[in-house]
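Before a colleague's protein record goes any further, I have to sign it off. I want your independent view on whether this chain really folds as the tokens say. The record follows directly below this note.
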Amino acid sequence: MNPKPKRKRWPWLLLLAVALVATVLIPDRSGLRSPAQTREVLARLKVKWQHPGPPVVELYGPGCGDCQLLMELLDHEGVPYELVNSQRDAATRQVLAELSKNHFGRPAFPTTPTTIVGTRIVHGPDIQSVVSAVKRQHDWQ
């Protein structure tokens, strides 16, 4: 009776270690790089931000329940924001596609709501991330 050969586990552990190191060392490319780039995106979306602090712009989809939830939560938190229908025109859809990149800068499936908060991009109805991003960019010009 031959004993069952043991599997080598070290290749999987090595792969996991490399993935963790890469996640830490590779810069996050999912946001906007500067306030100037944010202003350029807002101009393409035809948004004129008139409030103090970083712009908060929600790209929503018609009939999107998560979008409605985020709007209600933003209202409840007292965060001023602008709404942009992501299906309004081809230029808006293109901006949403450009903003829908993962941590490594690779294209991902465009989702709504997608919220621009200064230079940060928040995907989904994550009110805590939106409010946190507003507070962290208190020095927005």
Summary: The chain has one domain: 35-136.
